[in-house]
Automatic annotation (TrEMBL):
Part of the ABC transporter FtsEX involved in cellular division. This is Cell division protein FtsX. It is a multi-pass membrane protein. Belongs to the ABC-4 integral membrane protein family. FtsX subfamily. The chain crosses the membrane at residues 21-41, 179-200, 221-254, 280-299. Residues 183-301 form the ABC3 transporter permease C-terminal domain. It comes from the Bacteria. Keywords: Cell cycle, Cell division, Cell membrane, Membrane, Transmembrane, Transmembrane helix. Residues 56-160 form the FtsX extracellular domain.
Length: 305
């Protein structure tokens, strides 16, 4: 009987404040969709870091004849065979180095043509203008500075370049976007909480006669509060379900189908469905508990029970 009463009161409360209930559902849905999106964005950045950092190379570019005429680092002339052998030997002795691959001028020219063949500059280049290099795979990408310190300014070495620096700039941008999404999410969450509190108070005010009678006949504080708390929880749960739907649809249409980013951006290792599905219970639990707790604390002061 009590459960039936509480359920009937929930329905009455939701119908009486339909506009505000709808506003609560929308604000909770948007804030939790942003919350879930920020969590997935963090997972995506971590996945990309693990994927790309594992492929990071440090390149030791060697001086050629053209560099000897124009680059101060190559003032002593083009790299000699003895210098190349010594550089390779020293690289092999370094504990941070996993593997070393030599790229000749012809190979460098071929790779350049493959990547930038449409560039006007490509037509004027010749293989002898390209630089020989050693491509170094590190055991730990963070140890780039060890190689740079050992070979920067060395005879025959034009420069030492680390691809990780380029990736770091990309990940800083992605992390910045993620924090911006979290800031918007926090703002939406505050708006949702304010709407929940106002909705509960309006509902309690419109039923003040019923609650007064219940208080007079000795109903417990929790029994009086239960319908209002349940109303907020139901509205929040609906919003959380909508947020989960947004995330599932976004993953489906943006990555797998529709835009099909997984097919178009094959160089990016996108997060899988497991990452999305593991976030949904957290979103649903948050959508249920957050409005319920907000309603509970609002009613303690408002109803004074």
């Amino acid at each position: 009987m009590r459960a039936q009463f509480v359920l009937s009161e929930i329905g009455v409360g939701l119908r009486r404040n339909l506009t505000m209930t709808f506003a609560v559902v929308v604000s909770v849905a948007l804030s939790l969709a942003l919350f879930g999106g920020s969590l997935l964005m963090s997972d995506q950045v971590s996945t990309m870091k693990g994927y790309w950092y594992d492929k990071v190379n440090v390149s030791v570019y060697l001086c050629n004849k053209s560099d000897a005429e124009s680059d101060p680092n190559c003032a002593k002339g083009a790299v000699t065979e003895d210098q190349k052998k010594q550089i390779k030997t020293d690289l092999g002795k370094m504990s941070v180095v996993d593997s070393v691959t030599y790229e000749s001028q012809d190979e460098a020219y071929k790779h350049y043509k493959e990547q930038f063949g449409d560039s006007p500059l490509a037509a004027s280049l010749t293989p002898d203008q390209m630089q020989e290099s050693y491509r170094i795979k590190l055991k730990d990408p963070e140890k780039y500075q060890v190689v740079a310190t050992a070979f920067d300014g060395r005879d025959g070495v034009q420069s030492v370049q680390d691809q990780k620096g380029i990736l770091d700039n990309l990940f800083k941008l992605l992390n910045g976007m993620n924090w911006a999404a979290r800031a918007v999410m926090a703002l939406m969450l505050v708006v949702a909480l304010m709407l929940i509190v106002n909705t509960v108070r309006v509902s309690a005010f419109s039923r003040r006669r019923e609650t007064g009678i219940m208080r007079l006949v000795g109903a417990s504080g929790f029994y009086i509060q239960a319908p209002f708390i349940a109303e907020a929880a139901v509205a929040g749960l609906i919003g959380g379900t909508v947020a989960c739907g947004f995330l599932v649809l976004a993953r489906y249409f943006l990555i797998d189908h529709g835009l099909a980013l997984a097919d178009q951006l094959t160089l990016i290792n996108f997060i899988g469905w497991d990452a999305v599905l593991t976030k949904l219970p957290l979103i649903l639990a948050t959508s249920l508990l957050m409005p319920a707790l907000a309603a509970f604390f609002a009613l303690r002061k408002y109803l004074k029970v």
